[in-house]
């Protein structure tokens, strides 16, 4: 039996005015009250001009909106809509009262990403970590300093490092698909240049054979059995169409007396098309499957294939990241679009120097990493900086009991910190969208990635503050009970 209800109130009577107040135990209210907004605002305002332009949006509003976006893992426009509809989110971002107006236009997110690099988000994360340390040390008495984490003192001078890739949201690249997309864009550029060339005296528009080229491409993609030679033949045909169109574009530019009247967007695409034609022609002529600086997307030419050898995806397409984890806080020490060797001595030195910049009062003691960080050059770099490497040792297994016990303790420390690093990557990829970066520019993509790690650190900061409060309440409650008994 289906039971229907007719007791739904109208929207005017849905919320009781007497209880229409915010719940202080709401997660957004508690988070807003724990964040050091003033310190974070200084980082944001350092990128603003003091004497030019219109007044900027408040720092808390912008930073809060970024936190909402990546914490909920939604698009820019959806984040603004969420803030518009939710009074708790409006309180979180610092609005004076509830409003049905948009906090700001979603395009401001892109502008903020252009201004804030991943170094700025690392500074914000460092502020959170030091603020958490300050609150914890200021609130605990002498008797509780050895309390809630037995490994806390040992972990202060230990950093765990690992590398990963943040995949871009692009179609899976194939040579045939890339050439077909490049051909379509060359046809659009010809359509844009033709009216100007016609006014300059050119009598006939160049032929592009776009319908024939499209039919050949669709027919190739629909074929069930495709061998390597079949792919090469189809790619060569699409490349011929592309090179023909590029020659037509050169003739149209010459007809306009060498003046390229294109918007910057299409001018950039034209440069990318020439490079794609060169790379694909070189690979087809030599029979090679790779080329230096290989372009895999027309609209994001900075994206490179990164061979990782992971299960399910041998090659990923995005920025390669080197991340260090210190006391649960993750920092983006290196981000690069081209592939690099994360066990290189310069990368190791970068991790050590970054730790020193964030913690000037502390010297790094131990460096935790997998086998790739344990090569001889890396170990020499760490040894020269007075840092001990925690990982798979070189040489034969020891025979003395002391060495065996030391290696066992080393293995336990290594496993504990390595599991935290892998868990952090799983958290940011599944929970905050690191596995699908939707920004299109190289700089805004890196800013997007860094903001994800910052929001993850914010979660760590909140849990740390909450744990301290619970521990203190338990500690003082136990002390009062003992005092009453006495």
From TrEMBL:
Pfam families tied to this protein: DDE_Tnp_1_2 (PF13586), DUF772 (PF05598)
Coiled coil: none
Stretches assigned to the Transposase DDE domain: 370-459
Region (Disordered): 135-156, 390-425
Lineage per the UniProt record: Bacteria, Pseudomonadati, Bacteroidota, Cytophagia, Cytophagales
UniProt name for this protein: Transposase
Biased composition (Basic and acidic residues): 402-412
Transposase InsH N-terminal domain boundaries: 22-115
Ranges that cross the membrane: none
InterPro entries: Tnp_DDE_dom, Transpos_IS5-like, Transposase_InsH_N
Highest taxon in the source lineage: Bacteria
């Amino acid at each position: 039996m289906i039971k229907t209800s007719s007791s739904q109130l109208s929207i005017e009577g849905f919320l009781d005015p007497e209880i229409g107040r915010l719940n202080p135990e709401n997660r957004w209210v508690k988070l807003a009250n724990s964040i050091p907004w003033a310190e974070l605002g200084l980082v944001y305002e350092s990128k603003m001009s003091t004497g030019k332009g219109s007044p900027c949006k408040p720092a808390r509003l912008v930073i809060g909106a970024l936190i909402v976006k990546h914490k909920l893992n939604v698009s820019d426009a959806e984040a603004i809509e969420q803030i518009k509809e939710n009074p708790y989110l409006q309180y979180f971002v610092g609005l004076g009262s509830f409003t049905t107006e948009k906090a700001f236009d979603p395009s401001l997110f892109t502008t903020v990403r252009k201004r804030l690099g991943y170094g700025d988000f690392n500074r914000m994360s460092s502020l959170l970590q030091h603020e958490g340390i300050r609150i914890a040390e200021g609130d605990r008495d002498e008797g509780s300093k050895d309390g809630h984490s037995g490994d806390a003192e040992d972990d202060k001078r230990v950093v765990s490092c690992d590398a990963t890739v943040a995949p871009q949201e692009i179609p899976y690249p194939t040579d045939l698909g890339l050439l077909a997309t490049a051909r379509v864009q060359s046809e659009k550029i010809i359509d844009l240049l033709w009216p100007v060339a016609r006014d300059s005296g050119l009598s006939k528009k160049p032929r592009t054979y776009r319908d024939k080229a499209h039919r050949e491409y669709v027919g190739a993609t629909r074929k069930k059995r495709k061998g390597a030679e079949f792919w090469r033949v189809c790619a060569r045909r699409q490349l011929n169409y592309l090179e023909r169109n590029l020659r037509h574009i050169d003739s149209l530019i010459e007809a306009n007396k060498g003046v390229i009247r294109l918007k910057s967007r299409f001018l950039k695409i034209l440069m990318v098309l020439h490079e794609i034609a060169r790379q694909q022609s070189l690979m087809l002529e030599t029979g090679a499957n790779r080329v230096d600086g290989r372009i895999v997307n027309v609209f994001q030419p900075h994206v490179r294939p990164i061979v990782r050898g992971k299960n399910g995806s041998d090659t990923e397409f995005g920025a390669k990241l080197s991340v260090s984890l210190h006391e649960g806080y993750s920092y983006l020490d290196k981000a690069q679009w081209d592939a690099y060797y994360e066990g290189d001595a310069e990368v190791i030195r970068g991790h050590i120097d970054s730790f020193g910049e964030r913690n000037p009062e502390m010297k790094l003691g131990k460096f935790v990493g997998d086998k790739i960080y344990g090569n001889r050059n890396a170990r020499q770099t760490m040894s020269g900086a007075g840092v001990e490497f925690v990982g798979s040792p070189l040489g034969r297994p020891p025979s003395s009991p002391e060495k065996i016990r030391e290696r066992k303790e080393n293995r336990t420390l290594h496993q504990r910190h390595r599991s935290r690093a892998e868990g952090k990557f799983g958290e940011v990829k599944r929970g905050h969208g690191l596995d699908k970066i939707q920004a299109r520019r190289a700089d805004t993509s890196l800013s997007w990635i860094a903001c994800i790690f910052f929001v993850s650190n914010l979660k760590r900061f909140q849990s740390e503050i909450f744990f301290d409060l619970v521990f203190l309440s338990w500690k003082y409650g136990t002390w009062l009970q003992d005092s009453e008994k006495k």
